[in-house]
Amino acid sequence: MDISVVVPLFNEAESLPELTSWIGRVMQTNNFTYEVILIDDGSTDGSWELVEQLSQQNPCIKGIKFRRNYGKSAGLYCGFAETKGEVVITMDADLQDSPEEIPDLYRMITEEKYDLVSGWKKKRYDPVLSKNIPSKFYNWTARRMTGIKIHDFNCGLKAYRKQVVKSIEVYGDMHRYIPVLAKWAGFKKIGEKVVQHQERKFGTTKFGMERFIRGPLDLLSVIFISKFSKRPMHFFGVIGTLTFLVGFAAAVWVGAQKLIHTLNNEVAPRITESPYFYLSLVAMIIGTQLFLAGFLAELSARNSAERNTYLIDQKTNI
Q1: Per CATH, which fold does 3-229+306-316 belong to?
Q2: Nearest to 279 by CA among 242, 250, 310, 255
Q3: Is the dihedral of CA 305, 310, 313, 318 positive or negative?
Q4: Is pTM, for the whole model, over 0.85?
Q5: Which of 19, 64, 187, 213 has the fewest CB atoms in 10 Å of its CB?
Q6: Residues 103-118: pLDDT tens digits?
Q7: Rounded CA separation 227/224 (Å)
Q8: Residues linked to residue 105 through DSSP beta bridges, in sequence order
């Protein structure tokens, strides 16, 4: 099979007929063999019933239904697990991503040998203050912190070599930083393509103001995991040891001051009257805790058996 199209969706019933029909026309025009995997993330507007109808009409359309809303990362994770195509395309269900981009994305993966190609919505039709400006800031920060030179980390329209989606684990809200996960997994040829962005035709966005908090936290998480997941002691142990040594040195200095005054028969203040004594104790306690945190993290496996356990309610054509 040439292409698998993975589409997570939540309450997008109005968009699905047009989207699937559009994808089908593009595939037939270019003689691609394909499948479309629609992941219903706990919709309440009848999206699943529509997915079932579409899958009956077209065997290339497959569906997965979650029992409740888990988020976009969960949808991508379960969709990736079911893909059979050599190239995997992800796109949003709101018709803001154009299926007309699929042939060029496919060519960049198969002919130009990219591992991952991320769409770049250079001209956006989103609200400036609530989406465009924050998006530019987060993308600039992500580029600086990860070293991946793409302009739109969170673009839903992406293309992957099959081996990439089978090698990465998308969880939490890490769908924003899949290029970082791919790079960490050893897939370093990452490119981007300017793609057409369209105004939302039906419904409203499903992402609220909480993304302004989750975005930076997820970036810090993925950077930490990518650098220290195998050896957390390298992070916690180093900081903890340095903090402990600073506290210990301060305690030695306070004790030495007391000893010098005593040897010179001078009246010396009590050690407990010095603020440095308490600062040294705090530093040594914190240093010890950080060291133990690193030690315990070394003993714990990063891949929790329950982290990517989602209650799939139904499947169709899979």
Answers
A1: Spore Coat Polysaccharide Biosynthesis Protein SpsA; Chain A (3.90.550)
A2: 250
A3: negative
A4: no
A5: 213
A6: 999 999 999 999 999 9
A7: 5
A8: none
